[in-house]
Amino acid sequence: MSLPLAVIFIVSFVVIAGALTLAAFVWAVQTKQFSLKQLNEGANTIFNDDEPIGTPQDMIFNSPADDSPNPR
After folding, report:
1. pLDDT digits (tens, 9 = 90+) for 19-59
2. If exposure means fewest CB atoms within 10 Å of the residue's CB, which of 15, 19, 28, 72 is most exposed?
3. How far is it, in rounded angstroms, from Cα 21 to Cα 31?
4. Is residue 48 in a domain?
């Protein structure tokens, strides 16, 4: 029994794609792309001095003034 040529191409493509994915993952781990310090720093880059961490400043749905008109 011989395998159809399409099956050989598909299996070859899957093996090569898997090897490239594994190589990219190994590179990311070796260059410390997944370090917790770097992940936490990225989460805090959206804050500046005017908006301290943990204090929401955006009032899209809740107005800071209770007497403001509410379009319901």
Report:
1. 999 999 999 989 988 777 777 776 666 666 666 666 666 66
2. 72
3. 15
4. no
